[in-house]
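re the bet — no i am not wrong, look at it urself. input seq straight from the record:
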Amino acid sequence: MDKKIFIYKYIAYGTLGLGLEIFYTGFISFLRKDFTLQGTSYIWMFFIYGLAVFVEPIHDRIRDKSFIVRGLIYMVLIYFIELITGTILMYLLGKCPWDYTGIGNNSINSIVSIYFMPIWFALGMFLEKVHDFLDRTITYVE
């Protein structure tokens, strides 16, 4: 992949991820009857969501697999990225920006939680469509 195309895609994934996270946290705010709909994120997340560009080759290799298999593969990859990046941030900052301790005993070091399984499955399937869209629209950069 051309270096400039890689950078554009990285920026696209990072920006999209931030936007989705802010929308998601704002929606959770609504469910908690906080009608300010305040959504939040962290600048760190831009760089983490941008890593989705590295999943594109995997998407290309598993296109012929079933919806369920692809979704499960993406879910595992997202969990892996979340665990690795969360651990790195914990090491660098002394804490991870996201913290799942309040969700119950279903987390690993409060960095990943099984409650996000359907969300990561759906996000992976959505990112397939984003990947295809980016391939159609960002084909040549001078």
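see?? Strands lie at 107-108, 112-113. told u. also The chain has one domain: 3-137. so pay up
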